[in-house]
Design brief:
- The protein has four domains: about 150 residues, DNA polymerase, domain 1, CATH 1.10.150.110; about 90 residues, 2-Layer Sandwich (Beta Polymerase, domain 2); about 80 residues, DNA polymerase, thumb domain (Beta Polymerase, domain 3), CATH 3.30.210.10; about 240 residues, TIM Barrel (Alpha-Beta Barrel).
- It is about 45% helix and about 15% strand.
- The chain has 25 helices and 17 strands.
- The strands form four sheets. It has a seven-stranded parallel sheet, with helices on one face. A five-stranded mixed sheet has the order 2-4-7-6-5, with helices on both faces.
- β13, α20 and β14 form a beta-alpha-beta unit.
- The termini are far apart.
- Bound molecules: zinc ion (2 copies).
- One zinc ion (ZN) binds next to loops.
């Protein structure tokens, strides 16, 4: 049981308790525990195994520690089962829709007898939801839209969750006798922000042993199908894993076949046919002229024609007169034409980053002190960093007002003196207030090296109002970076409604950079918007928004996201040295510069 799964169970308990109108403190105890568990770098199961005292963790009391132990030891939780008996299971799904919390779910259940998404869809379709007090016509429309989005997205896991769920499986499968090679393909390898299921390819002497290895994994809930070279299982977490045993002469072809999007693979098949070749998961084969018609149809089988390539990805692509494509590019967005024309972009890499300029400290809602963050950035080899705590509008995290910010500058100067090896920039993540003004006085803003402007409130404003609000903030002469521009939390909260093209146009005009927030729950901007940003010449930043030292390690997610939008190092400002970075931000002379 991984931390992400424990979080899932606790979240369900908290939601059910809230529907049940239980004591709010009890609910909060679960929610706080989730934050601790999901953010903890060491798996709870390891801590339980070692007999560690879980109550030493923040927000984990005695009862919560017992819950964790129960989950780790038994895979289940008695309280959840009790709650599930009292409350229809479908109500949990309801709360995954935007704008529907436990209170509204409860009301829908009490007053309309809604017990599932299907019930809700019916009630909303008949206009009965709009009639409930506190709902209204707009909410009803949002609900119907939300149901549609839910159906297209929910089967998918966030990339970060999968990265947590996979290592025990990989470790287990690598130890299966006869397995000599193992690779996860699919959208996971393309580093898509969400992953539907796992395509696990193995090279193995014994396909049966490999299959039994998977079905014998402790995380398996049920076997969907096993036999031949393919085995499918459902993990307890809800993640489906499809194992394929691949012969070595087809390894590269299978890897390409199971990594590329459907459209990328179609393009490859067409290209192969143009060259009298046929490409499949088994390899590239020559087509004898007389059987060309067959190859176009469904009947093509691996035994036909001579194998031209298959063992490595490079061989397969080369047989089609193509270079090897980074997995992030294999989505048919013009990569094949680009390879034919002027060559592929040299995608940005994590090692290109020279600094991280969005992070929080204990001055606001970060867990580590300013100096600890500085040391962690230095340990990562960064040339510079920016401290960007919250502004005062975020009262619940004790954001900084001008007076506190000035005090922080004194500390930054002191820490800077102790750490001459890294340049510490003074910054702030300033709230965009409801009317589009910024949550800090101009004379303070002017003294900052790095000003990120972000939306943290009024997420539900209508499109025109929300767009105007952001446009006004971006036009402020001190605004330098637009933080997590759409505000979405993947699978939890939809994006704010803004005219993204207009926003990106304004960024280009004012020289405001857009952020790729690397947190795997955010990944904001998303790839298609970054693509547009690149087209419009909007500068981009890859930052972590770290609230703890270990979150600085999330930078690779932002880089992967940028790669999916074909961004090169030159498009990303924090690949530049500190002076060039500041100059590009339009701010060559900050308080520390000059
Ligand atoms: Zn923020
Ligand atoms: Zn932040």
């Amino acid at each position: 049981m991984e931390n992400v799964e424990i979080g899932q169970v606790f979240r369900e308990v908290a939601d059910l308790l809230e529907i049940q109108e239980a004591n709010p403190f009890r609910v909060r105890a679960y929610r706080n525990a989730i934050r601790t568990i999901e953010a903890h770098a060491v798996p709870m199961r390891k801590l339980v195994e070692q007999g560690a005292d879980l109550t030493e963790l923040p927000s984990i009391g005695k009862g919560m520690a017992e819950n964790i132990e129960e989950l780790v030891n038994t895979g289940g939780l008695a309280i959840l089962e009790e709650l599930a008996e009292e409350i229809p299971e479908g109500l949990i799904d309801l709360m995954k829709l935007p704008g529907l919390g436990p209170k509204k779910a409860r009301k829908l259940w009490d007053q309309l007898g809604v017990e599932s998404i299907e019930d809700l869809e019916e009630a909303a379709g008949e206009g009965r939801v709009a009639e409930l007090s506190g709902f209204g016509k707009k909410t009803e429309e949002r609900i119907l839209q939300g149901i549609q989005n839910y159906r297209t997205n929910t089967a998918r896991f966030r990339l970060g969750e999968v990265d947590e769920l996979l290592p025990p499986l990989i470790e287990h499968m690598s130890a299966v006798p006869g397995v000599t090679r193992l690779e996860v393909a699919g959208s996971y390898r393309r580093r898509r922000e969400t992953v539907g299921d796992i395509d696990l390819l193995v090279l193995a002497d014994d396909a049966v042993a490999a299959s039994e290895g998977l079905t014998g994994f402790s995380g398996v809930e049920r076997v969907i199908g096993a036999g031949g070279t393919k085995t499918s299982v459902m993990l307890r977490s809800g993640l489906q894993v499809d194992l394929r045993v691949v012969p070595s002469e087809s390894w590269g072809a299978a890897l390409i076949y199971f990594t590329g999007s459907k459209e990328h693979n179609i393009k490859l098949r067409q290209r192969a046919l143009d060259r009298h070749l046929r490409v499949s998961e088994y390899g590239v084969f020559e087509i004898p002229d007389e059987s060309l018609g067959d190859a176009l149809g469904e009947r093509g089988v691996a035994s036909e024609g001579e194998l031209v390539a298959g063992e490595t990805e490079e061989d397969v692509y080369d047989a089609l007169d193509l270079p090897w494509f980074p997995p992030e590019m294999r989505t048919d967005r013009g990569e094949i034409a680009a390879a034919d024309d002027d060559g592929l972009p040299r995608l940005i890499e994590e090692t290109d980053l020279k600094g991280d300029v969005h992070m929080h400290t204990t001055w606001s809602d970060g867990r580590n002190t300013l100096e600890e963050m500085v040391e962690a950035c230095q340990a990562r080899g960064y040339e510079y960093m920016a401290i960007t705590d919250h502004s005062k509008a975020l009262a619940m995290v004790e954001g900084l007002d001008a007076e506190k910010l000035a005090k922080q500058w004194i500390e930054i100067d002191e820490v800077q003196a102790r750490h001459p090896g890294i340049r510490i920039l003074k910054g702030m993540e300033v709230d965009i207030l409801k009317d589009g003004t910024l949550d800090l006085e101009d004379e303070m803003l002017e003294q900052l090296d790095v000003v990120i402007v972000s939306v943290h409130s009024f997420f539900g404003l209508p499109r025109v109002e929300q767009t105007d609000r952001v446009l006004k903030a971006l036009a402020h002469p001190s605004a330098k970076i637009f933080g997590h521009p759409t505000g979405r939390i993947i699978n939890r909260r939809g994006p704010i409604e803004i005219e993204i093209d207009e926003i990106l146009g304004a960024c280009a005009e004012h020289g405001v950079a857009v952020e790729v927030n690397s947190h795997p729950n955010r990944l904001d901007l998303r790839d298609t918007h970054l693509w547009r940003a690149r087209e419009l010449g909007v500068p981009v930043l890859v930052t972590t928004d770290a609230h703890r030292t270990d979150e600085l390690d999330l930078a690779h997610y932002g880089v992967e996201q940028a790669r999916r939008a074909w961004l090169e190092a030159e498009h990303v400002l924090n690949t530049r040295g500190v002076e060039a970075f500041l100059a590009a931000l339009g701010q060559g002379r900050g308080p520390l510069g000059g």
